[in-house]
Design a protein that fits this description.
Radius of gyration: 25 Å
Distance between the termini: 56 Å
Strand content: 5-15%
CATH architecture of one domain: Alpha-Beta Barrel
Helix content: 25-40%
Oligomer: single chain
CATH topology of one domain: Anaerobic Ribonucleotide-triphosphate Reductase Large Chain
Structural class: alpha/beta
Length: 765
């Protein structure tokens, strides 16, 4: 069936209007270990592979398969970034690898197994959320044993044929030998075992832990099945660093920050090893002062003005930290949180009550019921309210329902101990007047996410959570572009005015609402119909908006709901030095410069990408948004859009489309701190649907850092740079250029667990 559908399609072209499409696609989503000739997949190959996987897993009908395939080939609806990478391959069909299909996870940290699970997820490319409130981490055992680490055996010293994949653990008298297995499971088991030893009651004095790395494959060897090459560069240090953290807690339980450090040390090992890219969310209680201050003074300046990062806390940069409020925050708390985020990028507030209410929308079926629940929840009476209204509910379900405020790394999914699959609609590819085309795209996205509900996880906590609360997420990107095309420059001018409640503004807001509500209804109905036909429990929430930083580049969409940085800008994309895709970019005419981290002996940025001192490349691509040349569009200064206007648009999406949470990065100036804080306070206080949003400082007088991912440019500069690209171009066939450089071992990373432009910004000092 799938083969017939594939033959009927006419084109699989990445759009010329998206100049970053080829570099991003071949860097992030194209594989070569699944093809007979070991060449990288084309967009057509990826579409075929991923469709086959969805048809098989989801048991899609011929009509459903045709629709999903057509929408993806036309880049109007796409499955998750993880599914683009692994879908349809043999690796993802093994139950132990099912998690690798999911961008979004969250885990309650209640035992040592939770730490191992999160390392396993990170190694498969999943974003990891960790719940670190006292009610969870108080279940961890106390640290009782002082550990000392002795490293044995050189990495790779055992020949490939004799290596053992599983970790072997031998216990002696106050001594443990851990022979680390040459596999994902081997790394994870060794890490988790070390944590378990720290609280093991069989030992009577200090414990010597011998770590044998001889069976671990050396850097450069290929990872079979999942792609990429091994690089255990940070693995030896993982055990030492974790031991230092554990030894400081002897005689007590770990605190929330120590849990963060242990999780992030494993994540840093994964990232440094080029196994997977990782992203994290750590949630702590609003009253946990240590958690709130965990990243303060992370960067320190010496007497000469040189900056250094605290080496003991460096790994905390691996994740976002969010403070969970179970009582509505006061006006003062909102102001302090917004100000803290402006200066540090950290300290976001999450209002748990709204998250739990949304995650129980099947019970809170009227505005009155929801409002009544929120009143009681903020008084600490949530369990009592829920039990009194549903006395027949089992205790396990009651507990689960009240715990559904866990977040994934970018905050767009809510749940407890969850995996959530995402699909994405590229609205910039869809005609605002064509309602049928919109329905087809959102239907295709709904079918793509519903198909993965057929996974049955091996880990009991994730399997049980899915049975109680199956969730999916259909997202979109390019919403801003879509509305510009729908409403024209007058809509942009309304934004410029701050989106006021004028007669025209009220009309625009109603039209936005109509689109958003219609799309939400389509998604939920399609998912529910699919679940009913396949005997699956219906998810009660199916829509969200993810950051969409990377996949948006495949079509040139403005990410998620956000406005673009400007009508025209230089987009810089990171590659390792001499990456074949980057070399193909060079032949295609794009300019390559050294990254921010490459400097000479005097601290000045290097200018020559082929300088021996250069370690990382940035490919510079001039970009123009799809509506840049509409009459009047050039007159609008997008960078001047106020934080309150962004907040207003974000809340439109949150109210009328999103059933989970809307991932948001609102940019604000220092003068806007108090006004935005007041707006957030009111949104929470009046139950408008606000859960959590990230905030990012905006500076008008200078560019804070050089060579950022985005650099706004004028129309004249865009035209000049574009002409220079054409003058340098030596081929019009990007994939053919790539084949000329694509020899030897290919470094494959796949998409990150967090797909956000915010994650690409440097840590503020």
């Amino acid at each position: 069936m799938v083969q017939d559908i594939e033959r009927s399609r006419q084109t699989y072209q990445l759009p010329e209007a998206a100049p970053a499409a080829n570099p991003v696609f071949f860097r992030t989503y194209s594989r070569r270990d699944v093809t007979a000739d070991q060449q990288r997949e084309s967009w057509e190959d990826v579409c075929r592979r991923t469709l086959r996987g969805l048809v098989k897993l989801g048991d899609l009908t011929e009509a459903e398969a045709e629709l999903v395939g057509r929408m993806q080939s036309q880049l109007k609806s796409m499955p998750s970034g993880r599914w683009l990478w692994v879908g349809g391959g043999a690796w993802i069909e093994r139950p132990e690898n099912f998690s690798g299909a999911y961008n979004c996870t969250s885990t309650n940290v209640i035992d040592w197994r939770a730490f191992g699970l999160m390392m396993d997820l990170a190694m498969m490319g999943c974003g990891t959320g960790a719940m670190l409130e006292p009610k969870y981490i108080s279940q961890l055992p106390a640290i009782r044993n002082h550990l000392s680490i002795v490293m044995q055996g050189e990495i790779g010293s055992v020949s490939a044929g004799a290596r053992q994949e599983l970790t072997a653990v031998n216990f002696g008298e106050n001594q443990v030998t851990i022979r680390v297995g040459d596999s994902r499971q081997g790394w994870v088991s060794s890490y988790q075992t070390l944590l378990e030893i720290s609280s093991d009651e069989r030992f009577t004095s200090d414990v010597q832990v011998l770590i044998d790395l001889s069976h671990v494959r050396p850097a450069g060897e290929k990872l079979k099945g999942f792609g990429g090459v091994a690089n255990p560069i940070r693995l030896p240090a993982l055990y030492e660093r974790c031991t230092n953290i554990l030894n400081k807690a002897i005689g007590r339980q770990l605190g929330s920050v120590e849990c963060c450090l242990l999780i992030d040390e494993a994540a840093a090992c994964v990232v440094a090893g080029n196994i997977r890219r990782s992203a994290g969310m750590r949630q702590g209680d609003s009253t946990d002062q240590a958690f709130a201050e965990a990243k303060e003074n992370l960067w320190q300046q010496d007497a000469e003005g040189n900056w250094r990062i605290d080496p003991e806390r460096d790994v905390l940069r691996m994740a976002n930290h969010t403070r969970v409020f179970h009582v509505k925050p006061t006006r003062e708390e909102c102001v302090n949180a917004v100000r803290k985020q402006f200066y540090s990028g950290e300290g976001a507030i999450q209002w748990a009550g709204e998250a739990i209410a949304r995650a129980n929308c099947d019970l809170l079926t009227t505005p009155e019921l929801k409002a009544d629940f929120l009143i009681h929840y903020s008084r600490g009476q949530g369990p009592t309210w829920l039990k009194s209204h549903h006395p027949e509910m089992p205790e396990a379900e009651l507990s689960h329902r009240l715990g559904r405020y866990g977040l994934n790394p970018c905050g767009e999914i809510i749940g407890e101990n969850f995996h959530c699959n995402l699909a994405e609609i590229h609205l910039n590819r869809i005609d605002p007047q064509n309602l049928k085309e919109q329905e087809e795209a959102f239907t295709a996205g709904a079918l793509a996410v519903a198909s993965l509900l057929n996974h049955r996880f091996q880990e009991p906590r994730y399997r049980d959570s899915r049975q109680l609360d199956p969730i999916v997420g259909v997202s979109f990107t390019g919403l801003f572009d879509f509305f510009v095309q729908a409403f024209g420059s007058d809509w942009l001018r309304w934004w410029e005015q701050g989106r006021p409640d004028t007669v025209t503004g009220i009309q625009f807001r109603q039209q936005e609402q109509d689109y958003l509500s219609r799309w939400k209804q389509i998604v939920h109905q399609v998912v529910w119909d699919y679940c009913d036909r396949h005997g699956l429990k219906r998810p009660n929430r199916c829509t969200t908006v993810q950051p969409a930083g990377t996949k948006s580049l495949l079509t040139g969409a403005s990410p998620g709901w956000h406005p673009p940085k400007a009508q025209r800008f230089i987009r810089r994309i990171t590659f390792r030095k001499n990456d074949p895709v980057a070399l193909a970019c060079l032949e295609y005419g794009y300019k390559i410069v050294p990254s921010q981290s490459d400097k000479d002996e005097n601290g000045r940025l290097l200018d020559d990408a082929f300088d021996p001192r250069c370690t990382e490349w940035l490919v510079e691509i001039p970009v123009e948004v799809s509506w840049a040349n509409l009459p009047g569009a050039d007159e609008i200064e997008i960078s001047q859009f106020s934080a309150l206007a962004q907040m207003d648009f974000y809340m439109q999406v949150q109210k009328y489309f999103t059933a989970h949470n809307t991932s948001a990065t609102i940019e604000l100036r220092e003068s806007e701190v108090e006004a935005l804080a007041e707006r957030i306070y009111q949104a929470v206080e009046t139950n408008e649907g606000y859960i959590s949003a990230a905030l990012l400082a905006r500076f008008d007088d200078h560019q804070t850092f050089p060579r950022l991912p985005f650099e706004p440019i004028s129309k004249a500069e865009f035209e000049r740079l574009s002409q220079e690209v054409l003058m340098r171009r030596r081929t019009d066939d990007f994939q053919a250029a790539l084949r000329r450089y694509d020899s030897g071992e290919l470094f494959e990373a796949g998409p990150a667990g967090c797909d956000s432009d915010k994650c690409m910004l440097p840590e503020q000092k």
